[in-house]
Design brief:
alpha+beta; about 50% helix; about 450 residues; Cytochrome p450; five-stranded mixed beta sheet; binds protoporphyrin IX containing FE; 18 helices
């Protein structure tokens, strides 16, 4: 079978070019080869990028039985566990997804907005004029705390810190999953595999202790955090989730939800600070009427121009016609989020950061895909959007920041996400007092 044309050269070099500058490289390949192109990645197999919204809609809707998405994430199983929604496919994936979705519905997430603002206010309270901050690192601390409180339902500062230490130690050693299983073996205390196993055991012990305590909690039926809702959830056969499943989903939500959101926040602030007038325009809108519409538009425009995930991924288990090409089984199809969202026919002047485009009217579906789509669409999308708008609301209304570097951070690959290379360093130039809560509502 003939695959769509794409960049030539050794797979190792193409993979290196992508890893060094994922955004620029994909944009260059798109310009050269058009909406459908093939890239033979080293270690990841042959991938076909698709940047046409109609073809992506065809792929993500209708019968999904010949497409796998969980399999591509299976290298994360040692951390996330076999019950994680991210690594499952087929009926097992649907069961977990049906249990997970209700706690993340918009109406539930609205209840977390005050909590998100409170966490953001406490962060900004610690900022001092003249201080240098790396925004991505500060935002990571903040989004961790939000997940801990809203998803895990843990608010006691001592337990939050204990979870932070144990869980970030596991997530930060995720690169060990990229080396072969033999090298990963637990060969004792000083081996990398041994250290990883120890960290994982420590994190699991804390997670299982939280789950056990919550099962016993007298107020379980009144609690609104995601873990408590999951403990009360039942599938179609009336079965609840096991401790193992709960542990796997808790760590999955943390892994999928905290760095991604922190990176999006760092990108948003960088774009606001580097686009003349935008930071002040948002601050004025918040001061005038709360700024809901502009905050939402800024979040959407950030995720359009700087999506944190470059592409969704589906592996074909049977031959399938995609964007006019007959593709064989085994090929990975990448709906190219980053490329669709830079199409000049959908977004005039696509390289410009212009939140107005989202104030002026709706966007065609499958033209804005930062959270992917179909039966694998991001479970935490509404929570992430609430975090983006509420944290930005607090930061822009209270802090004045100046970028440290002359030029915007290049976009690089961090794990599987696109991230600003230096984490967006800024200097705090002014910090205002907290605004009264009604003015922020
Ligand atoms: C700005 C922040 C975020 C971005 C850009 C993002 C993006 C994505 C993308 C692109 C996918 C894959 C969709 C697909 O394959 O079609 C995904 C899946 C997922 N995300 Fe997010 N995400 C974010 C935040 C979150 C948060 C806050 C949570 C939970 C607390 C979360 C939980 C998940 C889960 C569980 C999945 C797997 C869904 C499935 O396989 O059925 N994400 N996300």
């Amino acid at each position: 079978m003939v695959l769509p044309p794409g960049p030539r050269g050794p797979a190792a070099l193409l993979t290196l070019a992508f890893a060094a500058r994922p955004l620029d490289t994909l944009v260059r390949w798109h310009r050269r080869y058009g909406d459908v192109f093939t890239v033979p990645f080293l270690g990841f197999g042959t991938g076909v990028y698709v940047a046409d919204p109609a073809a992506i809609r065809d792929l993500m809707t209708g019968d999904q039985s010949d497409l796998l998405a969980g399999e591509a994430n299976s290298f994360l199983t040692p951390i996330l566990g076999e019950g994680s929604v991210l690594v499952l496919d087929g009926p097992e994936h649907l069961r977990q997804r049906r249990l997970l979705l209700p706690p993340f519905q918009g109406s539930r997430v609205a209840g977390f907005r005050a909590l998100i603002r409170e966490v953001a206010e406490r962060e900004v309270d610690t900022w001092r004029p003249g201080q240098r901050l790396v925004l991505r690192a500060r935002m990571r601390a903040l989004t961790f705390e939000i997940i801990c409180r809203a998803v895990f339902g843990v608010t006691d500062p001592v337990r939050v810190e204990r979870l932070r230490t144990a869980l970030t130690a596991v997530l930060d050693s995720a690169s060990i999953l990229l080396v072969g299983e033999t090298l990963r073996r637990d060969l004792g205390r000083w081996s990398p595999g041994g250290r990883f196993a120890r960290r994982l055991r420590a994190a699991d012990a804390l997670l299982y202790a939280e789950i056990a305590a919550r099962r016993r909690a007298g107020d379980l039926d009144e609690r609104e955090d995601v873990l408590s809702l999951l403990l009360r959830a039942r599938d179609e056969e009336g079965r609840g989730m096991t401790d193992r499943e709960l542990r796997d989903e808790l760590i999955t939500m943390l892994a999928a939800g905290h760095e991604t959101t922190a990176t999006a926040l760092a990108f948003a602030l960088e774009l606001l600070l580097r686009t003349p007038g935008e930071y002040d325009r948002l601050r004025s809108a918040v001061a005038a009427d709360g700024g809901d519409a502009r905050l939402d538009a800024v979040a959407r425009e950030t995720l359009r121009l700087r999506p944190v995930i470059d592409a969704a991924e589906r592996t074909l288990t049977r031959p399938r016609r995609v964007a006019g090409w007959e593709l064989p089984a085994g090929v990975k199809v990448y709906p190219a989020i980053v490329l669709v969202q830079r199409r000049a026919d959908l977004y005039p002047d696509p390289e410009a950061f212009r939140p107005e485009r989202f104030l002026e009217g709706g966007v065609e579906s499958y033209a804005w895909l930062p959270f992917g789509g179909g039966i694998r669409r991001c479970v935490g999308a509404a929570l992430a959007q609430a975090e983006l708008t509420e944290v930005l609301r607090v930061v822009v209304s209270r802090a004045e920041l100046t970028p440290v570097r002359a030029a915007a951070d290049p976009v690089v690959l961090r794990g599987i996400t696109l991230a600003p290379r230096h984490g967006v360093p800024v200097t705090v130039t002014r910090v205002g007092a907290r605004l009264p809560e009604p003015a922020l509502a």
